[in-house]
Amino acid sequence: MSEFEGLTAIVTGGASGIGLATALLLADRGARVACLDLNPSVDKPLLGLKADVTDDASVRAAVEQAAAELGGIDIVVNNAGIGAQGTVEDNDDAEWRRVFDVNVQGMVRTTRAALPFLRRSENGAIVNVCSIAATAGLPQRALYSATKGAVQSLTLAMAADHLPEGIRVNCVNPGTADTPWIGRLLEKADDPSAERAALEARQPSGRLVSVGEVAAAIAYLASPLASATTGVALAVDGGMQGL
Ligand code: NAD
Questions:
Q1: Do 33 and 46 form a contact (C-beta atoms < 8 A)?
Q2: Which residue, of 22, 123, 200, 206, has the greatest Cβ tally within 10 A?
Q3: Which segment of the chain is annotated as a signal peptide (predicted)?
Q4: Does the Cβ of 145 fall within 6 Å of ligand 1?
Q5: Which of 54, 129, 151, 173 gets mutated to test ligand 1 (max ligand atoms within 8 A of its CB)?
Q6: Does the pLDDT value for residue 204 go beyond 80?
Q7: Residues near 83 by Cβ (< 8 Å), separated by ≥ 6?
C-alpha cells in the first residue's frame, strides 16, 4: 500500500517503541517522516531531529526544520510520553507538573507549532497517543491515568476546533504494548516474568499488544482512508475496553 505517497509526517518520541514503529510504517507506505525526540538516532529514510517537547523553542525549531526538509507537514503523531507509578500519595507536586508537561503540554506545544503547516495540507491529520489508562481505572497509575484522561479530552476539543479547517484529530488508546518502556518496567520488578504474566492476563487476548498493531491504528487514523473520522479514541488493547 502507498496511501501516504506525497505526504509528510512528524512523530514525537519517534526514536523508540510505538513512535519508531509508526514512523517506519508511514515511511514504508510512502510518507516522508521526521522523528522528533530527545535522542533522535534513527536510520534513513527517517529524518531524526532533536527536540524536547517540554521546551517550546526546541519544539518550534524542530517542527520548522521538519517542514523545511520534508516540504510541509500533513500529519502529526503526538506520541512522546513518560510513565508514572503510584497512588496520589506517591508523587509530589513537582512530579505531577513534570509528567503533565511531557504527556499533555508536549502535545499542545507540538500541535501549536505544526498547525500553520497542517492548514496548508489536503490531508491535515493529528493522532494523539493516549492509553487505555484514560478510562480503565488502573491501580497504581493515578498521575499517568490523569495525563491520558486529559489527552482524550484534549483530542475531542481539538477535533471540534480544527474540523472547520479540514484538520482531523483522533487518538489511539493502546493497552500494554511490548516496547522498551515496558521492558524497563519489567526489569525493575521483583519477579519480571510474574509481572509480565500479570500484564498479559489484564488483556482479554492474554498477550501484550505489539508496536506494529498500535502503529497500524495510528496509520489508519492519519491516512486519507479515515477522511470522515475525527474525534474518536480507537482502542488497541486486546479487547480490554470492549469485552
Ligand atoms: P518508549 O519509552 O519506548 O518511547 C518513548 C520515546 O519518547 C523515547 O524515544 C523518548 O526519548 C521520547 N521522549 C520522552 N520524553 C520526551 C521529551 N520530553 N521530548 C521528546 N521526546 C521524548 O515508550 P512507548 O512505550 O513507545 O510509549 C510511547 C507512547 O505510547 C507514550 O505516549 C505512552 O504513554 C503511550 N502508551 C504506551 C503503552 C505501552 O504499554 N508501552 C501503552 C499505552 C500508551
A1: yes
A2: 22
A3: none
A4: no
A5: 129
A6: yes
A7: 144, 181, 185
Mean pLDDT in residue range 90-117: 98
Q: How many domains does the chain have?
A: 1
Does residue 76 fall inside a structural domain?
A: yes
| pLDDT for the residue 239 | 94
Write out pLDDT tens, residues 5-31. Answer: 999 999 999 999 999 999 999 999 999
Helical residues (DSSP H) of the chain, grouped into ranges: 17-28, 56-70, 93-100, 106-118, 133-136, 142-162, 180-188, 192-202, 211-222
pLDDT value of residue 98: 98
Say which of 17, 66, 141, 144 is annotated catalytic.
144
- Cell numbers 502535545 correspond to 107
What CATH code is carried by the domain that includes residue 133? 3.40.50.720
- What was the ipTM of the complex prediction? 0.99
Domain coverage including residue 68 = 8-177+210-236
This prediction has a pTM of: 0.98
Measured in Å, residue 99 CA sits from the centre of ligand 1 at 12
- For residue 186, being part of any structural domain is answered with no
